[in-house]
Design a protein that fits this description.
Elements lengths: L7 H9 L4 E7 L2 E11 L5 E13 L8 E14 L5 E4 L10
Antiparallel strand pairs: 1-2, 1-5, 2-3, 3-4
Length: 99
């Protein structure tokens, strides 16, 4: 199966997020979290995560928005963008100043 062509704007948005913590969802109950290290277009379009963790997502009738149920250390990881359903840039937590 030939690789589908992704629009260049996807790569521009991802390149702006290099160095930030992201969550990559591969299917509704499985994904990865890590720091976006690099974005590649050739030979295959994909992303490199450093300090990646495997995450399992769970949702219930009472809590329909999927929540992280478990994590496992994975290390550095390459993900082909054709297998990715969703990418979320996670907010950085600013330390509170004590005055």
């Amino acid at each position: 199966m030939p690789e589908q062509e992704l629009p260049p704007s996807i790569f521009y948005m991802l390149e702006r997020s290099v160095g930030k913590k992201i969550r990559v969802i591969l299917d509704p109950s499985y994904g990865f979290e890590g720091t976006l290290a690099a974005v590649t277009q050739t030979p295959l379009s994909g992303i490199w995560l450093s300090e990646a963790e495997v995450i399992v997502l769970r949702s219930t009738m009472a809590q329909p928005i999927p929540q992280v149920a478990s994590r496992e250390e994975k290390g550095d990881l390459y993900l082909n963008l054709n297998s990715v359903q969703r990418i979320e840039v996670l907010p950085t937590v600013q330390p509170r100043s004590t005055r």
